[in-house]
Give the backbone structure.
Amino acid sequence: MNTITPANGAPVTTDDSQPRLDRLADIAQRLLERCRAQGASQAEVSCSEETGLNVNVRMGEVETVEATRDRGIAVTVYFGQRKGSASTADLRDDSLDSTVEQACAIARHTEDDDAAGLADRELMATDLREFDGWHPWAIEADHAIDLALMCEAAGRELDKRIENSDGASLGSGSSLSVYANSHGFLGRERSTNHSIGCALIAGRGEAMQRDGWYSYALAAEDLESAAAIGRRAAERAVSRLAPRQVPTGAYPVLFSAEVARSLIGHLVGAVSGGALYRKASFLVDSAGKALFPDWFAIDERPFLSRGLRSSAFDSEGVATREAPLVQGGVLQRYVLGSYSARKLGLHTTGNAGGVHNLQVAANAGGLDEMLRGMERGLLVTELMGQGVNTVTGDYSRGAAGFWIENGAIAYAVDGITIAGNLRSMFSAIEAVGTDVDPRSHIRTGSILVGRMTVAGES
């Protein structure tokens, strides 16, 4: 992969993250003491600081330069099984005292909730490792602007059919957080994220087509080069010129890696505790049942080095663990925090706050190999709309991409709709590719669904 060099050619030489984390930890401990003094039987505190730099350019001109610095303190108290929460961004003692008082006042006036309370003490994480997620980028605004301009220029210069631009951007941010609770748990986390992206417009008038590309990573050296991103954006925009529709019918549909992860996201949403205990999921009572072909597997891997969602503990302090979500096509478990687990009469899976790095196992090669194997059908590279009903599993979304004939791209298509039901789509998956998109914590290659309804020309 092409890489870019951090702003001055060297890593950050001064790093004050540990003293800042110490300060947040001290605030969290003091707040817990104040909660106890107010009579709370349990309490938890989250403290965070975030900094960032974002620049946007368009048509060779700077549009915005924004430097951000945010912080937040959230306090939750429990009086038995009555819960109250309050938050502030003000670190003055009187404001912190007021935040605790507000949380306690709310708790005293709420109804008992049998599922309320901290996660069980014995589940708290004790191995509080880091996973190589802290890589500050010492980039000045001027250099960030130069990289964004370089990205856009590389794309605009690639092909004369690129006649307009939606701009290019560069973002760099860092986050420090502390979570502490009255079980004696205190966890610290620090992370960085960096991105460069570009969106370009090919053609003119009613024949215009827009597409783009971006790179996202925890460390600047893992980003694609600004010029390579611009060129990729241009190639994608030009490839979409002169689109056609396809006859309405049932065809194989290959979701490219960057959109395939949305299918896994729908699965995660449907097996998450909140949807399950509200009976708002088409996968209620599906644990232990076959949903996918018998070769299909998804593993949760929270301890990946430089994983986008790696963590030793979840947002309740519960130790994370490597565990299958789907194995042999069978749903092994749900995705639960302690509250939803109690609602369901189950145990937390260490997923309060979400999943940590899902890895979908491949059974095929790269995208080209999958196209040859599909022979004829639709390659989807963009999805539009929100036509997914998580209660029934019904799926209907606008789409764009390419028609495949004889195992190769024949022409661009847009203005179509693909439809099905997620349960049927999951069972109809025929292949998962090795072309993993690294820009998401859901790590999957392209996914081939053997048959879906495609609504195009009547």
